[in-house]
Amino acid sequence: MSRGLGDVYKRQLRTSQTLDSSRETAYLLINAASIARDIHAESSASSPEWLTQAYHSLKKAEHIADQIQDPRAKSHAVGHIARLYLQRGRTDEALTLTYEAEFIAQQNNMPDVLFRWQWQRGRLLDQQGKIDDAINAYRQAVQTLQPIRYDIANSYGNRSSAFRELIGPLYFELADLLLRHSPKTNADAQQQQWKLQEARKVIEQFKAAELEDYFQDDCVAELQSRTAGLEQVDKHTAIIYPIILLDRTELLISLPGGIRQFTAQVRAEEITGEIRNLRNTLEKRTTHEYMPHAKQLYRWLISPAWQSLQSAAIETLVIVPDGALRTIPWGTLHDGKEFLIKHFAIAYTPGLEVTDPRPLERQDLKVLLTGLTEQVQGFPPLPHVRDELERIDKNYSGKGLLNEDYQTSRLHQELDNTPYSIVHIASHGQFDRDPDQTFLLTHEDKLTMNQLEQLVGIGQYRDKPVELLTLSACQTAAGDDRAALGLAGVAVKSGARSALATLWFVNDQATALLVSDFYQHLKDSSVSKAGALQQAQINILSDRRYRHPGYWSPYLLIGNWL
Fold first, then answer.
1. How do strand 237-244 and strand 249-255 relate by DSSP bridges?
2. 503: Cβ–Cβ under 8 A, 6 or more apart, which residues?
3. Roughly what angle, to the nearest 10 degrees, separates helices 91-107 and 111-127?
């Protein structure tokens, strides 16, 4: 690897020697220096040869930038020289040069450069143990980045992965700092709450930005203007906010007395591996391979807070998952005796500020029931859909659109003319890492998320949005965190207060039984949506035929759980 990079470095260096002093030459040298630094990082030898090469290339780039009076190239060259000093452990000199690069970017109104050096300053100050100054530098970097974050991500070719990989570390490093240095004693309880709230808010900023980046619109901002704080809604509900960091996983849990911080000493790669293993084995309905992973994740994610949850008489968990944690149903976590779903109703939200928590008004519920039983567009038939819709119809007397009647134009007509409270779609659906490949199947077409937003969002103009959007046959690729982001955000994007959707496709009688049972419990005004789903899952779990979590666990309630 190093040898190949060495050849690239030499070619770039030779090319730069044939060019006049220009911006192109300066950046060619800056790029060559980055390659040399990478070679040094990969090398097992402690020789500074490649760092010396990088230094000379950057000094030459800086000289060219001065010659042609290019402040952008100058800021980049100086900032990268600072990184070399950092690699050599000379943090004081690295910090001085970082300040210089930052000043140039600030004076010349270059926020896309400025935030990088503010971020670098934060890292350097953290290494020096100047924690308050480091936190302030990180805060400045986040503030500088916020207005231009999409431009930064879009400047890279593969936008689908660029956002989290390029921008995510800034937010998570700031949260890490705040959590590492939050007061651990009750003597400073107020300051502790401030630190925990700020850490969570930082990750919230990233979550909201990531969701908007996925859907390429400001659906999150629109919903935030109508939401209320989740913690004030119900004293028997706990908000679980996991933050996976490189060296540990932090759990911020909102309880009636405030936010509590619990720490699981498990590295990001280890917990992510367990999550992947659980997700992959849950669909194997003829084995119990999932159990060791379900138990291990329980020990990391639930055990630290178990006593606190019990003491607070918590009945419902609202999970705000991130990354790989979006891909698993938490109800499958196992304490060695029982699944977590036996203890708590569980709901999910992509962010604290994108859920509108209001109880479901059960009077005069209008239900639109749609779906496919036939094979269309190359997708297999769904023979149990008719039974599923008929069972629901017995409880709600809904309007039905089945097979050839289930078309986009008919959906639009119905939703335009009638303020439906519940829209139930029993059809193939796919959530993909690319939102353009995410769809719900109709008889003649594929309904995109933008089209779904236009249809379901009609109710918002009447100030009466759809209360529940049910997608009973959708699926998300195992291990694809970005695809799961689309599923997590479906309620936000569509404009429905909540969504009931599946992580994987269950073409079985279990679907008809579980979904109809959910709607039966939902008629009871004393039961929340999350409670109705919990009861339906426990009931199906008690049936020997469907005890395996592959049947009952993929159903997620997303958004308003009341």
1. antiparallel
2. 279, 327, 328, 329, 475, 476, 484, 487, 554, 556
3. 160
The amino acid at residue 183 is P
DSSP 3-state of 475 = strand
Q: Using alpha carbons, select from 397, 390, 391 the residue that is nearest to residue 367.
A: 397
Name residues whose C-beta falls within 8 Å of residue 390's C-beta, 6 or more positions apart in sequence.
none
Spatial contact of 426 and 370, defined as CB atoms under 8 Å apart: yes
Q: Is 63 helix (H, G, I), strand (E, B) or coil?
A: helix
Closest CA to 83 of 37, 14, 42: 37
Q: Which residues contact 544 (CB under 8 A, 6 or more apart)?
A: none
Q: Cα 249–250–254 angle (5° rounding)?
A: 145
Q: What is the pLDDT of residues 326-370, one digit of tens each?
A: 999 999 999 999 999 999 999 999 988 777 788 888 888 899 999
Structure tokens, 52: 């010396």
**Per-residue H/E/C for 410-471:** HHHHHHHHCCCCEEEEECCEEECCCHHHCEEECCCCEEEHHHHHHHHHHHHHHCCCCCEEEE
- Average pLDDT, integer, range 147-157: 77
Residue written as token pair 């000043």: 103
User: Which among 356, 362, 363 is positioned nearest to 233, based on CA atoms?
Assistant: 356
* Long-range contacts at 259-265 (CB < 8 A, ≥ 24 apart): 259/193, 259/196, 259/197, 259/200, 260/305, 260/308, 261/179, 261/182, 261/192, 261/196, 262/304, 262/305, 262/308, 263/304, 264/300, 264/301, 264/304
Cβ-contact 467, 422 below 8 angstroms: yes
Contact 283, 550 (CB under 8 A): yes
The DSSP symbol for 355 reads -
Q: In angstroms, rounded to a whole number, what is the distance separating the alpha carbons of residues 274 and 244?
A: 13
| Residue 259: per-residue pLDDT | 94
pLDDT tens-digit profile of 544-558?
999 999 999 999 999
pLDDT at 225 over 60: no
pLDDT digits (tens, 9 = 90+) for 449-467: 989 988 988 766 556 789 9
Report the SS3 class of residue 250: strand
Residue 217: the pLDDT is 74
Question: Residue 381 carries which side chain, given as an amino acid letter?
Answer: P
With contact defined as beta carbons under 8 Å apart, do 264 and 248 qualify?
Answer: yes
- Cα 241 to Cα 186: distance, rounded to the nearest angstrom: 21
What would the mean pLDDT of 530-545 be, rounded to a whole number? Answer: 97
Q: Checking DSSP bridges between strand 555-559 and strand 498-502, what pairing results, if any?
A: antiparallel
Give whole-number Cα distances, 274 to 205, 436, 485, 504, in Å: 27, 30, 19, 18
- For the chain, the 3-state helix, strand and coil shares in percent, each to the nearest 5, are 60, 15, 30
pLDDT value of position 1: 43
C-alpha–C-alpha distance, residues 78 and 202, integer Å = 29
Q: Residue 17 pLDDT > 80, yes or no?
A: no
Residue 257, helix vs strand vs coil: coil
